[in-house]
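Query form — protein IG domain-containing protein

QUESTION: What is the three-dimensional structure of this chain?
INPUT:
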Amino acid sequence: MKVLLIILLLVYAIGATRPPRIDVEDHPVQEHDSIGKFVELKEHQTIIFKCSGPHDDLEFKFPDMSDHKGYNEVTYLNRVEEVNDDDLGDRVLTITNVQQSDTGAYSCISLEQSSLNDTIYVFVHGENTFIPSIIAMLSYGDEDVMVPCRTTMFVDKNDIELYADGQLIKNAMKNYDHRFGYKIDKNIYDEKLSDTRFECKYKKEPNQRVFS
Ligand SMILES: *[C@@H]1O[C@H](CO)[C@@H](O)[C@H](O)[C@H]1NC(C)=O
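ANSWER: The structure tokens for IG domain-containing protein are given below.
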């Protein structure tokens, strides 16, 4: 009897440290080494996330969309619904009429222990290959800045080019991440950084570019 109790406690303890799992219904979840789990949608579709795990305090975290042109918090919240799926203790998040500015990382976390989390990156294909941004550059640590050329679809990195004042920067793609953009070493540009005009292009559609 005592042994059984100990085993039950152990199973419970192991379960409680298992991270929640986030999934998407009706759209295939793909996976890539560089960005993990991701889903691709077209504008106006609906996405339903389900988060499950041995926790009763699961909550969704939304991407930071504050610099996405076209993002409006009020209309966004009108398209979002988050409920508990009582049968299973799961948490369900539905976003209707998705927009390209909804592109970003959606996570599910245990409130008490936020290191227990799981993330899916969502790309929403719209009219732009890059999410139009209201800011040109993001500081990133002391040494780096980020040119926020984030794509609205999972394109081949080799097809994304970075230009500085019209000059192609070779090998920039090794510092490229679909989710954040191009990381640039500040030291290369010294004080000139703020005068430099960065631009990203998608080779397959040269008209698709982000002016920074
Ligand atoms: C998710 O967990 C990882 C470690 O497993 C942690 O680095 C990250 O900050 C967590 N995310 C959140 C939103 O707390």
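ADDITIONAL NOTE: Residues 138-211 form one domain.
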